[in-house]
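In the lab's daily routine, each protein ends up as an entry in a very long ledger. A line of letters takes care of the sequence, but it says nothing directly about the fold. The three-dimensional part falls to structure tokens, numbers that each stand for a local backbone shape. The outcome of that step, for a single protein, is printed below.
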Amino acid sequence: MADNELTFWDHLDVLRKALFRIIGVWFVLAVGYFIAMPSLFDSVILAPCHNDFVFYDLLRYIGRELNLTDEFFTQEFNIKLININLAAPFFIHISTAFWMSVVTATPYLFFEIWRFIKPALYPNEQRGVRKALLIGTVMFFIGVLLSYFMVYPLTLRFLSTYQLSATIENQISLNSYIDNFMMLNLCMGLAFELPLVTWLLSVLGLVHKSFLSKYRRHAIVLIVIIAAVITPTGDPFTLTVVAVPLYMLYELSILLIHEKRESAEIEENAEGEA
């Protein structure tokens, strides 16, 4: 391991330079998104507000092909946002550009993590960590894309059309829309890191397949609590839309832990005790 020659302060200096590079990439991307935001805002951020959004078209296509007449498959959907805060458009312009830069810079963040820890790893460890970081990057973007194309549109369509009383007209504010949009997409991206985290814990011997299977019911309760925390709204529909993918990720985490590895660890522990 080559980094044995580095002192503690040398490691801090390397970390400092890595942080400056990450911040620099974030800043450059944020400036780029800020400049391009006027066109991106309508075509990307506000796309789920319009009836021609790809997910709504898919639902209507499924309805036509299967002769489904339920409103879920036939609904025409358009909403118009309102702004009640004078400075909101400017600050939302800045914050949206920043968060989009954070999301798209994730691969570079993982790359810097890899560069920082690589010298401290043996060749066989490097292969495993490189694979884990690659999987983590892919899973993060899968979570973000799933949220953008399915979870958020479903949530938006349900909540914006839900009526407590016919005398109450729903008017969605710009701030409310952006807060929900950013929070849900980012949290879903982070939630999709669950299989990676579980796999890493299993490699370290902290989690075993039998443990995850045994406490599956407890995990369901915990997943519901986590979904309630990360969802921007407290309605049961959004909670379900977020909790179901999280539970599927939990089951995927169990599948990723190989039974052979677990059996080998048990045998090694038994030999050690003998």
